[in-house]
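At this stage, I wrote out one protein, both as residues and as discrete backbone shape codes, and that material follows here.
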Amino acid sequence: MSFVITGNPGVGKHTIAKEISKNLRLRIIDINKIAFEFGLIEKNNDSNDVDVYKLKNLIKEKISSPGLIVGHLAPYVLSSNQIKKVFVLRKNPRDLIPIYKERKYSKGKIKDNLGSEVLGIILHDAIREFGEENVLQINVTGKSKEKITQKILESISGEIKDDDVDWLSSIVEENELKEFFAY
């Protein structure tokens, strides 16, 4: 059974996975790399479409020993019998905007990813797939990679309460819905 690091694009999944991997001496299994390697990603306008059914079956074959699985597709291509604990990294969506612009995401792709973070879609889907007791959300906003790594390592070795993340309330309060959602 493996540990999983997931979350929306731009939250620092790969950076944190490298740190955790060094500390636990676990190999990193990158879901996106597997999808690219086996030609399961198709360019579609400004996004990449993934055949998650084929990817899920392929990952079942590829993961024969414990590791550290990283990728935003984790809730859609892994099953609960493959995981030990899932860490969903969350980042203030206002801090994601410059990251997405630097990556040259289209306006539509930016809104899609921001809306997903605001609503906690990946967290919701991870809980649905793996169970609430196996999922921990971590607010990475303004925290160093060392501090985030330490929190994950502490939660692996004991019981640590997850962070309370509610971006929607502050966005509604600041009347910023149009900045994060297309309507």
